[in-house]
Structures are given as C-alpha cells and as structure tokens.
Amino acid sequence: MQEFNENDKMLHLVQTNHNLLPVIHRFGIRLGFGNRKVGELCSEYQVNTAFFLAIVNTFHHKHSFPEERLLSFSPLLIVDYLRKTHDYYIHSSLPQIEVLIHRLLQSTPVQNSEMKMIGTFYLAYKKKLLKHIEEEEKVVFPYVEKLVLQPETVEDRSFDINFEKKHEHVDLELDDLKNLILKYMVPEYDALVCNKLMDEIYSFEKDIREHSRMEDVILIPQVVHLLKTAK
Ligand SMILES: [Fe+2]
Ligand SMILES: [Fe+2]
Questions:
Q1: Where does 28-93 have alpha helices with state H?
Q2: Cα(167) to centroid of ligand 2, in Å?
Q3: pTM check: above 0.85
Q4: How far, in whole angstroms, is CA 210 from its chain's centroid?
Q5: Residue 134 Cα, ligand 1 centroid: separation in angstroms?
Q6: Which percentage of the chain shows pLDDT scores above 90?
Q7: CA distance 173 to 122
Q8: Alpha helices (runs of H) in the chain, residue ranges in sequence order
C-alpha cells in the first residue's frame, strides 16, 4: 500500500483521489497548489504535516486506520479537526443533500406517501445529526480541551463520553435514507439529479463513518487515558 508522503505534490493527491479535496479544504489549504509539495503547503498554512498525512492516508485507503499513529497526536489537534469536519457537514454536505432531495422530488409528477416520506425522513435525520453535533461541540469537546489544558480544574471524572451507540444510529439511518430512495422512487424523475444525490449521500456516508471512527477509536481512548493520568 503506497502512502502519500510530505514530498508528494499536493496536486498528485487530488489527481489520485478527487475526494481528498474536501479534506484538504478542511485543513484550510486552498487551491493554487502549483508544484508545491505537501510538506511545503502544510508549513505555509501552519498545518501539522504528520497529522495531515495521517488523515489523508486514512481517507484514501479504505482499510487503513493507523490507530497508534493517530493516538500519538494531541487530543487538541483531533478535536480541532473534528470541529472542522462538523463545519463541513453543516455548511456543505447537509445543505447539498437537502437541495438535491428537494430537486429530485420536484422532478417527479407523482406525489404519493413514499415520496413525502423521503423528504420527511431526511429532515428527521438532519435534526438528529445536528443535535448530536451540537452536543459534541457544546459539551464533549470543551471537556476534552479542559482536560488537556487545565486538568486540575476538571471536577467531573466520570464523564460519559461514549458516542458509539449514537454513531450507530447516524450510520444506519443514512442507509435507510438511501434504501428509501433506491426502493421507492417512482420511475419518472430527473436522472442527473438522482445520480448527483446518490453520489453526495455515498461520499457523506464515507466521510461521517471516518469521523465517527476517529471519535470512537481515537478520541475516547485518549480521554480515558487523560482521566487516568491527570491529577
Ligand atoms: Fe462529531
Ligand atoms: Fe459523533
């Protein structure tokens, strides 16, 4: 398995896998790469190169998850990345999916209960996901930051940081949404819009799975470790 490294041109990463572009953007790195290498652009944008590479490689290689390497980064870096990912979901993925569902449903003359269910199901999913994100941003992440920066001020040592069950819901419901569309969409619809929507849902699903894995497999064990070692 060939991993990207700091001497690769950033252009090469996107040419190899265009799905990396949103991840690169998430780090604040913008287009206009020229021939600059990953290491050069990371230092220009003040991004931790090793962390950047760990994330893009995890994203690119479906079965790679360098647990040990990721665990070695500061929880502050992890939380910062997770926040940026939330931001991307809120301002890009979710609005895109919503617009496309709306356009898909508008493109069919049939307005039966299944069609209505697709829209309603999505809105309920979005509401739940936003609530989940809000809880992490308002409660979990500040707790982790406090635990790293001012451990002596943290009184609650039995903090429940178990996201795992909630993540199962997030994943399964996205699956249900896809199935609803694939099974019940009536044949008269705009195929271009439908393809775009399915593309968008599949890449969102992949992204959010990586995100949840990062929270469950990296952030939780880091917090458990900090709780054990903090005085
Ligand atoms: Fe999250
Ligand atoms: Fe989460």
A1: 38-44, 49-60, 67-71, 75-88
A2: 6
A3: yes
A4: 6
A5: 9
A6: 69
A7: 9
A8: 10-16, 20-26, 38-44, 49-60, 67-71, 75-88, 94-106, 113-135, 141-149, 164-184, 191-213, 220-229
